[in-house]
Amino acid sequence: MADRYRIRAATSADLSAVAGIERASFDDPWSLASFRHHLADLFLVVEQGEGVLGYLIACRLGPEAEILNVAVTTAARRRGIAHALLDAALAQLAGAGVRRVFLEVRLSNAAARRLYERAGFAEVGRRRGYYHRPREDALVLARAVDHPARPA
Question: Between 3.40.640.10, 3.40.50.720, 3.40.630.30, 3.40.50.150, what CATH number should domain 6-144 receive?
Answer without folding.
Answer: 3.40.630.30
